[in-house]
Amino acid sequence: MDRLVICGKRPLAGTVQVSGAKNAALPCLAAALLTDEPCTLRRVPKVRDVATMCRLLATLGVSISSADDDAERRLEVTETTNCDAGYHLVRQMRASICVLGPLVAQRRKARVALPGGCQIGHRPIDIHLRGLAALGADIRTDRGDVVVEANTLHGAEISLAGPRGATVTGTCNVLAAACRAKGRSVLRHAAREPEVTDFISLLQKMGARISIDDGSTDRVLEVDGVDELSGFDHAVIGDRIEAATWAAIAAVSNGVVDITGFNPTDAVAVSNCLSQMGVDVEVSESGWRTQTVGQLKNCEIHAKPFPAIPTDCQAQLAAVLTQAVGVSVVKDFVFPERFGYLAELARLGADVERTDVSAIVRGPASLVGTEVLASDLRASAALVVAALAAAGETTIRRIYHLDRGYENLEGKLRALGASVRREADDYQF
Ligand code: EPZ
User: Fold this and answer.
1) What number does the ligand 1 atom closest to the CA of 95 have?
2) Is 62 within 8 Å of 99 (Cβ atoms)?
3) In this predicted model, what pLDDT tens digit does every residue of 154-208 receive, in sequence order?
4) pLDDT, tens digit, for every residue of 238-250?
5) Residue 131 beta carbon below 6 angstroms from any ligand 1 atom
6) Would you say the CB of residue 48 lies under 6 angstroms from ligand 1?
7) Catalytic residue numbers?
8) Are strands 184-188 and 109-113 parallel, antiparallel or unpaired?
9) CB-based contacts of 22: which residues, under 8 Å, 6+ apart?
10) What is the helix, strand, coil percentage profile of the chain, to 5?
């Protein structure tokens, strides 16, 4: 296990290029299960969750090789007998559920361990299962696994809406199965996140017949099932969540930082929020040029489904708000419990309070480095932001959480002038 040691209050400047989006790469890797032809996925981020997905796919008979630059994965199904995604991998990564739809679509059966809850809250898959059942699948649970079998799949009208908006991976799973069902399916309230749109474009390259109707508030997908899908050669979109994380890092570190490699239209709500805080965000085709001008200002953040501020960014923005003048409020309408990072921010000296539906952040707080514990991927990113704003050294332990979703974070930080080092850690739970 490793830890990061960060010395804060240093100006950062320069250019950072984000990697391919983890949350697009994961369903796109699973799409290799939909064909027996060779597939190539490019711009794959070198993060733990991708490695876990590749290990899972290998158990499902997919041979995977990396090109020399390692951002490219070549995948091909060589064996189709095992359709069981074991708990040992699913418990490491909830996104393992992304193999469910492709397995049902292509092999007509799947056994996937029910992904437990996690640090950010309850993670049900009822909408995934309801959609697959509507397409004709038989579903049962067996000793903590969900077992799905479908001799035939037929078109259906399906809603992908849940109590807190559409389901991202649920949209990918049900869509993958609908692409191989007989007849037309209509998927209403489909997720509109850019990572889902990227997955749809990959399926279309494979020969899937999908039309997108992005109405004012609802996305409707019309799918005409096909008998088979071809291989693909696809480059994953840039990671808008990583870009937002770098913008939060830049916001607390005086200096001009260029953040490139992503589509700024995928993160308009974030750039608008940063501007409201007093960060100067210059938008260009290749990304953002950010600079904090004067004192940061408080604001209210409501994390909601796309195109609102993503739930995956609220922790990082809350860390910035510890440095803003006044009282800020952060609400997460997708994962209302996703405030585990507040206690660690308080250890650094942040003035934060949890109410039943929000976080209250009062600033500006003088943060002082100390030892903190990473808890989940985006909470860990919030600790990096806070550590860069703190005086002295901060040690962040259990940073395997960060390694799940950020490629070479410390290398990119050092290139901007940050004082950061990774050390082996004998942390005992
Ligand atoms: C995806 O998770 C992302 N992960 C998450 O990013 C992200 O936070 C989340 O979408 C929301 O944007 C990947 O794409 C791999 P959901 P997912 O199904 O698909 C409820 C990160 O940090 N719901 O869209 O698992 C659910 O409880 C990760 O990179 C149901 O009620 O999330 C939640 O409140 C963390 N029933 C809401 O919907 C269901 O069947 C959104 O969940 C499914 C979900």
Assistant:
1) 15
2) no
3) 999 999 999 999 999 999 999 999 999 999 999 999 999 999 999 999 999 999 9
4) 999 999 999 999 9
5) no
6) no
7) 118
8) unpaired
9) 45, 47, 49, 50, 239, 241, 404, 405
10) 35, 30, 35
